[in-house]
Structure formats: C-alpha cells, structure tokens
Specification:
alpha+beta, GMP Synthetase, Chain A, domain 3, 56% helix
C-alpha cells in the first residue's frame, strides 16, 4: 500500500509527464494519442514506473513512441526536478500500459455475445 507521500509524488510525476508530452516534446515519433495512466513510485522514492497508454495504428508505432519517450527521459526528469521540492528526483522508467486495450477487447467481446444473444432470442420468437 503506497504511503501518502508516494501518492503525492506519483500525482506530481503524472502531471509533469503529461505536461511534457503536451508542451515540451517535439519528437515526431511520439503519437498524439498518448496518456499517462498511472505512476508507481518505489518506497524509497528513488524510482518511478510510468505507465503510458499509447494509441497507434500498429504495434511498431507504439514501440517507436515508447522508445522516443525513453529517449526523452532526461528532459522529462529535468522538468520533474524543477517541479519537485525534494532532495532527490526519482529515476523514471516508461512502460506500455495494456490494461486499457484489454478492457476495450473485453467490452467488444461482451457486445459480441450480447448481439448473438439478441439474435437468438429474435429467432426463437414465433
């Protein structure tokens, strides 16, 4: 269970990374449809895992975007260090967050089954 301090740092990291994506990074490999879904800060506040939801046409584009974000890590960390009032700035590690994609797939499957159920009910009625 994260402490209040970890949660506060995670919230700040999420805001700074989101702002960096929107305003400070101009790498063409970074797609327009990228968002920070969650941040997990280590107990010693020295590192943070940043999970990104990346919407792109292909997996290769998603990987290029993740590589670009990893390449921009130093720039993002400098922005984070300026925003923090702490002795240390956490080292950021970026990961693709597949939870949203899995949720969309689950919703699609539920809709598909519900559609089959409705068709079966319509055929069963006299």
């Amino acid at each position: 269970m994260p402490t209040r301090r970890q949660e506060r740092i995670a919230r700040l990291i999420k805001e700074v990374v989101s702002d960096a994506i929107a305003s400070h990074l101009s790498d063409p490999r970074i797609t327009e449809f990228i968002s920070v879904t969650r941040v997990a800060v280590s107990a010693d506040l020295r590192s943070a895992d940043v999970y990104l939801s990346i919407f792109a046409a292909s997996d290769s584009e998603k990987e290029r975007t993740l590589e670009a974000m990893t390449g921009a890590r130093a720039r993002i960390q400098s922005l984070l260090a300026a925003a923090m009032k702490s002795k240390f700035c956490p080292v950021l590690r970026f990961h693709r967050d597949e939870q949203f994609q899995k949720m969309l797939e689950t919703m699609r499957l539920i809709d598909e089954v519900a559609g089959e159920h409705r068709v079966g009910d319509a055929e069963a009625e006299p």
